[in-house]
Design brief:
Layout (H helix, E strand, L loop, with lengths): L12 E5 L3 E5 L5 H4 L5 E8 L2 E9 L4 E5 L14
Antiparallel strand pairs: 1-2, 2-5, 3-4
Organism: Geodia barretti
Protein name: Fibronectin type-III domain-containing protein
């Protein structure tokens, strides 16, 4: 039985930033922390507790671009569910 990873991806960082989008990059989740196959990632831009944008990518991806953001309102944080 698979469970959620013990830890999230390593080295989370921003890449290209425009007035309305941000590309987020991350490293691999270590084998010891995966607890099974990683089938996908969800990157979200949150402002004042509200989700402003979401990007979903497959488990092999190491980046995602979140588009449709309000200009100059983005900060980068990392968390996992």
């Amino acid at each position: 039985m698979q469970t959620n990873p013990t830890r999230g991806p390593s080295s989370v960082r921003s890449g290209t930033v425009t007035a309305s989008s941000i590309t987020v990059h991350w490293g691999e989740v270590s084998c010891l922390d995966r607890n099974g196959e990683i089938t996908g990632y969800i990157a979200q831009a949150v402002r004042n507790g509200m989700v402003e944008g979401t990007a979903s990518v497959g488990g092999d991806a190491r980046q995602a671009t979140i588009s449709g953001l309000s200009p100059s309102t983005c900060t980068l944080s990392k968390w996992q569910q």
